[in-house]
Amino acid sequence: MAKILTGGVGKVEVARTAHELALGGVEVSVSNDMDAAVKLRSGQADYFLGTCHTGAGASLGVLVGLMGQQTCHTFGRSVPTADEVQDLLAGGKKVFGFAVDQIDLIAPVLIHAIAARTA
Questions:
Q1: 92-115, pLDDT tens digit by residue?
Q2: How many Cβ atoms are within 10 Å of 69's Cβ, its own excluded?
Q3: Looking at residue 33, which CATH number applies to its domain?
Q4: How do residues 38-83 score in pLDDT, each as one tens digit?
């Protein structure tokens, strides 16, 4: 079971998208940056999906500072393919940022990829 935390300006919408997908192997909770960092570092959570208006800054600012750049990835305005997300996950990325107006495009790709890793 992968535990996903959502944060940022679209955290409720990302969580709703995940719940609507109804995929097995994932548990999604709404969070904030500071709590997410604590839970990720202590193993109480596995992934963080953060949103802001550009997808490149505030979505992950605190997490980059506390977790390190090596575990974080921002998509900015780009929409990743399933293969790109799988490569990022395989490379150890656990924290993802994207634009709030692209939740419907990016969140499903991320959540499906995470669910596939738990299968």
A1: 999 999 999 999 999 999 999 999
A2: 11
A3: 3.40.1400.10
A4: 999 999 999 999 998 877 676 678 888 889 999 999 998 889 999 9
- Residue 46: domain span: 2-118
* CA atoms of 116 and 62, how far apart (whole Å): 28
Apex 28 CA angle, 26 and 31, nearest 5: 150
Residue 79's contacts (CB-CB under 8 Å, 6 or more residues apart) are: 102, 105, 106, 109
**How many structural domains comprise the chain?**
1
Q: What is the largest CA-CA distance in the chain?
A: 32
In whole angstroms, give the CA distance from residue 69 to residue 63.
Answer: 8
The single-letter DSSP state of residue 54 is S
Radius of gyration in angstroms for the set of CA atoms belonging to the chain, rounded to a whole number = 12
Beta-bridge partners for 4: 28, 47
